[in-house]
Specification:
The chain is an alpha/beta fold. It is built from 17 helices and twelve strands. Helix 1 links the parallel strand 1 and strand 2. Helix 1 runs antiparallel to helix 14. It is globular, with a radius of gyration of 22 Å. The two termini are 40 Å apart.
């Protein structure tokens, strides 16, 4: 006799969730309400909704940093049916021994590549297995851009708010990943910056072998980058599987799209895969009524096992999920997702998403600001290092005091 209230994080999937909720209610009689927070407003919406007597029974956090605010509300999913269906325990968000959250979308990012243009330049994806390979190919394409018919090897590394997360968060993940790997840790209160020179080398490549002058980056948007890649004006575009909807149906056919790992010049990187992970974790509200908790667990189980649920998640929402219940009948039609799967099948090691351990939004903003100053020639790279290393310790301390 319980009920379900899901506070949904992704506005673009609202309609699909409303339809699923309706289908489940018709099938089981259980009342399911879905409320979708406005883009960028999830945390504040969650805070206000949790204060109400009818609080969400199902909500989400973005990883370890997001969990800190909500761990007292997270039901332990260790024995839940949904947890048993995970393909790997890497998709559990732990709070000590408890499973506080379950990842429900797996996304990958890397260098989206126009394979046809790459071949026109005389190369294939197999020619690029390291940073040195990438630099050689990109420099050559840039030198021959008129002959190849492109504006640059890379799309513009836009540093306005719609695009800068690709660099201050997603690209910055690489030096963090390799430092954590070397030190055998999964988070830190003080990053050392061991791989910041590698980070600089790739960013330099992005801003020199580009469709535009570095001085224009402050005003370049994600729409610019999408258009440059979609219209065949650049060969490489750092972004993820989610970008497919924004670049398809242009000059680049699905079969022209491939992906490369983000190589930064580290030993053994030829075995590296794409950056794969999640910042979308389902959590069940343990302060809800016991009947509502059970109703929520039953709903989640139905979503990942029923035909309606799997069809909606994989086709309408276009998600790749970490659940065993999604067989080849429920594979995404997204060619970037297929490219990501090929790296896994080839035994390449995915780069984990460690940006969920970045100490704060302010840290990212300071790093991004310093990167822009450097790119446009109004600042030095040392300021990026300072923002990265000193800023991390300062922001970590501020976030964890009291």
């Amino acid at each position: 006799g319980g009920k379900v209230y899901y506070l949904n994080f992704k506005p673009e999937q609202d309609e699909a969730w409303q339809n699923l909720a309706k289908a489940y209610t018709e099938e089981t009689g259980t009342d399911v309400t879905v409320v979708t927070a406005a883009s960028g407003q999830y945390e504040t919406t969650l805070q206000s909704e949790m204060a109400k007597s009818d609080a969400p029974t199902l909500f989400q956090v973005n990883g370890p940093v997001g969990l800190k605010n909500w761990k007292d509300y997270c039901y332990d999913l260790k024995d839940a049916d949904i947890t048993k269906e995970l393909t790997s325990d890497a998709y559990e968000l732990k709070d000590g021994d408890a499973v506080a959250g379950i990842a429900y979308v797996i996304e990958s990012y890397g260098l989206i590549t126009n394979k046809t243009l790459l071949e026109k330049a005389g190369y294939t994806l197999d020619d690029i297995k390291s940073f040195d390979d990438l630099k050689k190919v990109a420099d050559d394409i840039q030198a021959r851009k008129d002959e190849i018919g492109v504006k640059g090897a890379f799309t513009s590394a836009g540093m306005d708010g719609s695009s800068d997360w690709r660099f201050k968060t997603h690209l910055a993940n690489l030096p963090i990943y390799y430092e954590y790997k070397e030190d055998g840790i999964t988070s830190t209160d003080a990053i050392k910056g061991t791989y910041l020179d590698n980070f600089k080398n790739l960013f330099d490549l992005y801003i020199t072998d580009s469709t535009c002058e570095p001085s224009l980056l402050s005003s370049k948007t994600i729409d610019d980058a999408n258009a440059e890649f979609g219209l065949g004006e650049a060969v490489f575009y750092q972004n993820g599987t989610w970008a497919y909807d924004n670049i398809k149906d242009n000059e680049v056919a699905d079969e022209d799209m491939g992906m490369l790992p983000i190589y930064i010049g580290v030993d053994g990187e030829e075995d590296q895969g794409l950056c794969t992970g999640s910042e979308n974790y389902w959590c069940v509200n343990k302060k809800a009524d016991e009947k509502d908790i059970q109703a929520t667990l039953d709903f989640l189980s139905w979503v990942i096992t029923s035909d309606e649920g799997r069809e909606s998640i994989s086709q309408e929402m276009g998600f790749t999920t970490p659940f065993k219940t999604f067989d080849e009948n429920y594979e995404s039609a997204n060619p970037l997702v297929k490219a990501a799967d090929e790296y896994v099948k080839a035994g390449k090691t995915p780069v984990s998403w460690n940006f969920t351990t970045m100490p704060s939004e302010e840290w990212k903003n300071q790093v991004g600001s310093a990167m822009l100053e450097y790119a446009q020639g109004t600042g030095e790279w040392d300021a990026v290092k300072t923002a990265f290393v000193d800023g991390w310790a300062k922001e970590y301390k501020a976030a964890n005091e009291g």
